[in-house]
Every structure is written in C-alpha cells, then in structure tokens.
Amino acid sequence: MNLNAPAPDFLLPDLNGKLYRLSDYRGQIVVVNFWSAECPWSEQSDSEIQNTSEAWKGRVFILRVASNAHETDEMLRDASHARGLDIILKDSAAQVADLYEAQTTPHCFVVDENGILRYRGGFDDRTFRKRTASRLYLREAVDALLAGRLPDVQETAPYGCTIARTGEG
Question: How far is CA 73 from CA 11, 36, 44, 69, 97, in A?
Fold first, then answer.
C-alpha cells in the first residue's frame, strides 16, 4: 500500500451489525485507527483522540478497527463504553488489518477528502524507551490536511500492542 495513492476501500460491520464503507466518507478526512480493547497504548491514544476530535467535529471521521482475533464483542463493547467511543468496527479475521499492513494498536492511517492515503504510522512519537510524547503525529497530519497542505511527516513507525491475528493466541 503506497502513500499518496488511493487508500484501499473496505466494508466492515460495527458491533450492532451496521456496515461502514470507507468510500462512503469521501469529502471528509478519515482516520482509520487500528484499535484494541486490551492495549494500554490504544486506550491512551483514545483519550487524546477524543479530546482533539472535538475541534475536528464534522470535518474528520474516525473509524476504529478492532482486528484482534481473541477480543470478543463483549470486550469491545465494554471498552468502547468505558472510553466513551461511538463506533468500533469489527475485523476479527484481520482482513482489513492485512490490507493496510497494520501491525499494532494503535496504528493510524489518515485518508484525505479524495480518498488518498496521506499519513500512516504511530499516533505519537512514544517508544518503549521514550514514555512521554513530544509530537502528536496523528494530530499534525490531520491539522495539515485541514489547513489544505500535506503533512510534514507522512510516515512513522507504529508503536503499541501487536495485533493478534487468527491462530496467534
């Protein structure tokens, strides 16, 4: 999957069975965030995304994709409710994660209004050794697109919990 090229379209159900297609959000910036109910890094980014997304209301749509094979609907519902999240898409066979080459939770992808992938990578610049973020890459990418320009940083290494695909336990 290439940057500055069309983002792969996908169709996934939410926890209530409603279907969401990426291409239905043309005209808006979309954040595709590979997400986990169990990952503390995902939980931490959820809080920061919730705070930031208030300023993005109506201009940016966030699709959280749960791709861990072992996370049950109940686990996903409980975590999304506790974190105040509205839409969680279920990708338990990790087909969309594979399509996007997503490795961790969180692993963020930003798609512009025309369906072009403009950023992929980490939510911020934390690492195992660097526990406090000094840059919020996701916010920088979205804010650049909202300002009508390309992100200064278009790709970073994702950081978080490894997505557990089918058969990986």
Answer: 18, 12, 21, 11, 18
- Residue 76: phi and psi, rounded to 5, are -65, -45
pTM > 0.90: yes or no: yes
Is residue 21 classed as helix, strand or coil in its secondary structure?
strand
CA-based nearest residue to 51, from 78, 83, 26, 20: 83
d(CA 11, CA 145): 24
Residue 35 · residue 87 · CB < 8 Å:
no
> Identity (one letter) of the amino acid at 151?
P
- Find out whether 5 and 116 touch, Cβ atoms under 8 Å: yes
What residues pair up with 111 in beta bridges, in sequence order?
30, 117
Phi, psi for residue 145 in degrees, rounded to 5: -65, -40
Q: pLDDT tens across 74-118, in order?
A: 999 999 999 999 899 999 899 999 999 999 999 999 999 999 999
Task: Pull the structure tokens for residue 114.
Answer: 């025309």
Take residue 142 and report the two structure tokens written for it.
């979205």
* DSSP tally for the chain: helices H, then strands E: 4, 9
